[in-house]
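Task: sequence in, structure out. Protein: Dicarboxylate carrier UCP2.
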Amino acid sequence: MEKRSQPMSELDSCKRSLRQMLSAGAAACIGDLITFPLDTAKVRLQIQGEKKVEAAKNIRYRGVFGTMATMVKTEGPRSLYNGLIAGLQRQVCFASIRIGLYDNVKNFYTGDKDHAGIVTRILAGCTTGAMAVSFAQPTDVVKVRFQAQMNLDGVARRYNGTMQAYKHIFMNEGLRGLWKGTLPNITRNALVNCTELVTYDLIKEAILKHNLLSDNLPCHFVSAFGAGFVTTVIASPVDVVKTRYMNSPPGQYKSAINCAWTMMTKEGPTAFYKGFVPSFLRLGSWNVVMFVSFEQIKRAMMATKQRMETHN
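Result:
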């Protein structure tokens, strides 16, 4: 994503890595703040079809905007932002690693050569995606459970606050509970990360190579939107399994594989693409906001660095 010119010292390389990580974390939080209701709607659609409590049996979600409207009507507008705090915590930990370290890992695999092939990009994407999940999994578990939690009269709330949720999961399910669904999440995010970053890289390079657009906002917009669509198509089945498994109470599924098999036998193959439209709307819009913000924040940080060096 970032072009390299001349060799850098270790100190300059560390500073660049830190800038990349800070830029990625900040941009991802901006993306979450804007698109979080779409993500919540996606989660509700993905878990629809599982067993429901009595008070929620008559609630049926239809489409992304229908889901959001139903949630606002039955639970209030704040329900669209259930789990936002955990979501922002997740992005600070998660995006900083998976996006912020992508260029560094790619350069490591190429031996600091300027051009990276498609296999190297995919390998770098899978690597940073797996690293990020291993570190940030507890935040994802809490986020998903809050998004799935219904705020209805007559329905006991599973969790009352973000920190209470971490504590409750740890006390009742142990460390395994906080890292529940790590394998499907690593699979999902390795797919998402390599598809998202590699597709963004390739679309952006093609646009610039054929002089269709300059390296500016419209180019970043088109590249990010294209990356969002391709990523949603590839990662949606794993995403649904991940969401259901992480949200499930102890004992509902024996494993992520068992969760996928239960979905297939009880609901059919279309269950794996439940919530596809909100997934695409969310990932497409999130990609646009995140990548555009990421590019602009990087440029602003570079401009600030250059001004400071000039004054010195």
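The radius of gyration is 20 Å.
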